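Why run this: before we spend reagent on co-expression, it is cheaper to look at a predicted model of the complex and decide which construct boundaries make sense. The entries below are exactly what would go into the expression plan.
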Amino acid sequence: MTQAAPAAATREAYPYALIELVEQGVDVVAIDADLSVSTMGYQFGERYPDRWYTVGVAEQNMVGIAAGLAACGKTAFIASFAVFLPGRCYDQLRTSVAQPRGGLNVKCVASHGGITVGEDGMSAQAIEDLALATSLIPFDVVVPADFEAAKQAIVAVGKTTRPAYVRTGRPKVPGIYGSDYRFELGRATKLRDGSDVTLIACGVLVGIALEAANLLANEGISARVLDMATIKPIDREAVLAAARETGAIVTAEEHQTTGGLGTAVARVLAETVPVPMAFVGVDRYGTSGKWDELLTYFDLTPARVAAAAREAISRKR
Amino acid sequence: MPTRLAPVSIDELKAIAKRIRAHIVRMVYEAQSGHPGGSLSAVELGVALYWNHLRCDPANPEDPNRDRFILSKGHATPFYYAVLAERGFFSTELLTGFRKLGSPLQGHPSMKALPGIEMSGGSLGQGLSFAIGHALAGRMEGREFRCWVMLGDGELNEGQVWEAAMAVPHFGLGDRIIALVDRNGIQNDGFADRIMRTNPPAMFAGFGWKVIECDGHDMAAVDAALAEAEQPDERPRVVVAHTVKGKGVSFMENNPGFHGKAPTREQLEQALAQIAEGLA
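The model came back. Tokens follow.
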């Protein structure tokens, strides 16, 4: 693998991905709802002003407009914060996007996902968005771990005709992937192999899981690490292989442990090879603080993930 | 380019409206569920629109240049399906399947389940936004089509309607979107003035729209109002049609009980007789 890119926020990938899609001939129209300076949608608007609209603080209207554009053949992208998209417009996503004709071609790119939004506090910290998005039947749901993955994920969903939800983050996080990385929708990336336990993570927790694997290695525990960027459709084969080959699984996500990555993995295990499993996530509302302070406050740390791994391993028969 | 039909006389439109009303009460009776009140109130608006104003071709329902009719008050499916069938988008024989297992005629519209159904509905307040998306796409592609959006007056309680109402003039879409308000004065729980008082003309005017009011059951007046709405203006146009819920059936008229209730066999016979006589 080539050297990983320097620290960047996953949200910063959004305009680059949209520009790439237009350059590849995809008929993109993007809409923002008065947060374009934060979603970075404005950068696409500067490049392609005829393909970009702002609707003011009106997420419900934004979804309906996107549905109309998609019904006319456009690839409609909408951007806001993950607390508002899907939270403020879930019914519009369901009725106007998910249900018509098996799902209209609308892509949600929701920035400021999870608790690492930081200082804005609990109302701004989305820990429910993946549960909402995965409940919309035709939607693909993706949580990329770094800038390169985010750019490729947005391009990938932009090339399908299905609706999709991509969650990006606010803070600059270290790069994990180099330019040789190839994101594939619905496929996990095995970042480290191991035989005692598998750590399955998405988003900012991928880097934390890799650090946890280092801690475990120091104790002689061999941990596999999977970046499960696509939560829906989940990579069943990768989960199944992890269960069979390592016998214990930990999921780690910047989301509550109900309705997100952990739930999706648990379902695969329940239907195939049940093995001991532990869930790392955020099951309470938050508070203000710097994003890295909040990771510690919520115990989304390498030590916690490692502890969860030991606990899951202890339950192996 | 889809075109209008040759102008249809007011008498002919009235005859069509009678057939639509008979379909509505039969469909709701057959299904023993559905929304007759807000379907009967919308009939003149729908008939004048589909026969004299909407540029559409039932033989080519996906023509990208077609005018769109978007039913935002999605519960008025008996009205909508009957109009589409009578206008030739699909067979009137399908109407008997309304709300039944295996029929494409769901209780609320499912987009593209049948030719001519432009949008899924059932959750109120979403049609005007959907129309904006169509209108923006049309403008980007240099197409001339227009979107006609029908809203209920109870539906105007939904905040999304006003998000969209402010966006239509902002985006300069006045000549591409026309709103129709079926002002029948009754919503699910009762008389609108008691449940949530609105003033549709003042509210739309406040959002920068030109308001055209008419008697929503005077076919000539409705036809003229739609024609006026088509005239260019710097403002978007809304036709507020003053209507009677359940119009044409004495025991349904202005009766909140028939917002979402089916008639009995006896009531059906009575309703069909009144419609044939032309109570409306």
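The first strand of chain B starts at residue 68 and ends at 71. Chain B has one domain: 10-277. Bring this page to Monday's planning discussion.
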